[in-house]
Amino acid sequence: SLSFQERMLESSQVTVLLGLSGAGKTTVLSTALLNVCESRPLGMKVAIRFLGTTPQSTSARSVMESLSNQIRRVYGLADMVPPAEFSNLCDEFVIALKCATEDQPLVVFLDALDQLNDDNNGRALEWLPLPPPPNVFFVMSTIDGCDCHNALTSAGIDSQAFVKLKPLGYTDSVVVMDTLLRSEGRTFSEAQRSVILEGFRQNEHLTPLTIKLVAVLSKKWRSTTVIPSDFQTTTEAMLTALFDQMEAVHGAKLVATAFGLLQTAIHGLSMN
Predict the structure, then answer these.
(1) Are 161 and 20 in contact (CB under 8 A)?
(2) What CA–CA distance (Å, rounded) separates 160 from 16?
(3) Bridging pattern class, strands 162-164 and 14-19
(4) pTM
């Protein structure tokens, strides 16, 4: 997060956090957001979008509409009437961004650009003005090597603007796993631990999410539970095993219905 603030102070208007899915990009970006909000100079405005978390945050159109009106409000302007044409909406988005001034700069956080859908070629990022207008700073995250990463590179974003989160190494992964287990007063049998550690050795792309999923999945294990020798520790394998475990307890129909409803909920998974 410190590097984000240093970049902004050095007038670098774009910072992009790269990493594998589950590498902790959202956590790092959220920490940067918190630090910026706590230490921002008087007058600085901040907007944040966690893309892909709700139906309204998955399309470039809806994201631009909501951001444009939020920005207009914080700068004392009335909401716009969203244009029907996508190109006109892009123009309105730029107009809203240009509300930023030297005394009232604007920082826009966009997490998980790769979660945008195909509507209006959202992941091509042609709707995103790059470089941004004066006094506007973009802090974004996306999966390393995806369409969005390539689009940002093609847009001429300097290589120094990219900050890459590396996968966890074997040693760090073991430390994180043991810490999670200790916090819950749990441990593995020697046989279980041996299989899991071998899975870690075979995975060059271990992430914090992967380790967390191992800890969550193992909550249902007994000391006598036998773990298959080919136990995989990839994020995809962990998620599949977790869903299989949920279906075994609650039934496939209930699990599918519950997650389907969450997917279609306007506000996603919320406290309300």
Answers:
(1) no
(2) 9
(3) parallel
(4) 0.83
